[in-house]
Amino acid sequence: MEAFEEEAFSGSEKKPKCWRRYVDDTFIIWPHGTSSLTVFFDYLNTLHSNIKFTMETEKDGVLPFSDVLVKRTNNNKLAHGVYRKKTHTDRYLNAASHHHPQQKRSLIKTLDHRAETICDDKSRPEELQQIKEALTKNGIDRVCRIQRTKVEQQLTTYAYLPYVSGVTDKLKKILSKKNIGVRFRTVKKIQQVLPSNKDPVPRILQLSEGVYELKYTCGKSYIGQTGRSIQCRIKEHQPHTRLGNTDKSAIAEHVHINENHKIDYENVRVLNKTTRIIRESLEIMKNK
Questions:
Q1: Which one of 90, 160, 268, 282 has the fewest beta carbons within 10 angstroms of its own beta carbon?
Q2: Hey, is 198 helix, strand or coil?
Q3: Residue 223: which H helix or E strand, with range?
Q4: pLDDT tens across 75-106, in order?
């Protein structure tokens, strides 16, 4: 993008006063008027066939950029605070959830750090009040002081344990005496533990591409190839066979000509998963 930007600036008579890019979003200040901004925007979209821009301009002196809400004041200076989408619900990790207390403290630390780094002096108190109200909605009604801890000694071994309140904390103290660090993880949810009511897809059908074989009840075979999952290709054959679309499936054509013949979709055999077009031809020749 650096080369693109250099080309864009060198070829434009009017240039932005400010150009700040973050990943694929760019914030600019354009002091030359709306009409020339449109000309500059159209010019950018002509420079490279694979690089196209969309544009959003300020509304009522306000423009969101990533997590930052930029405001233009009456004296044409910039103010900035935290940006939240209209769909934001202030829903965070609930105090009653079964997570290690450190994870809940980390939430507070993250929100506080964002307020400190993004907000200016004027908007920071309002943002901190917003954070306090959001945490209260999530059951966190006490201010947690985050203290700087001592530098941990170098640990060479770690144990990953499911967090169980009142149990895992004691294990951590015991293991730390043996120079073993502990990292907590949440246990599986009920949805993850209960078995699925769907029949599992055989792993062989999940292959992304390959040459496959289907058997007819008459003993003959159909050999085909696909660049997608074999399961997806098989599912395409089935409705063609049922509806008699002989122009879209050789299987449907065979079954249509031979009414008593059926295809065994349950026992698919994968012959090869590389160089599928050549392998398909070889396998067809072998089965003639």
A1: 160
A2: coil
A3: strand 221-226
A4: 889 999 999 998 999 999 888 888 888 888 88
d(CA 232, CA 234): 6
Structure tokens at 146: 């985050």
Amino acid at 94: N
Looking at mean pLDDT, say which of 21-30, 186-195, 202-211, 227-236 comes out highest.
Answer: 21-30
Tokens of 14: 């009017």
Q: Which of 56, 86, 54, 83 is nearest to 70 (CA)?
A: 83
Residue of 278, 286, 285, 288 lying closest to 225 (CA atoms): 278
Q: Is-contact 228 209, C-beta < 8 A?
A: yes
Query: What is the rounded CA–CA span in Å between residue 23 and residue 15?
Result: 21
The domains of the chain, with CATH numbers, are 2-82 (no CATH), 157-192 (no CATH), 204-286 (3.40.1440)
Structural tokens at position 78: 């910039």
Q: Which long-range contacts (CB under 8 A, 24 or more apart) does 79-85 make?
A: 79/120, 79/122, 79/123, 80/118, 80/119, 80/120, 80/123, 81/118, 81/119, 81/120, 81/123, 81/124, 81/126, 81/127, 82/114, 82/115, 82/118, 82/119, 82/123, 82/127, 82/130
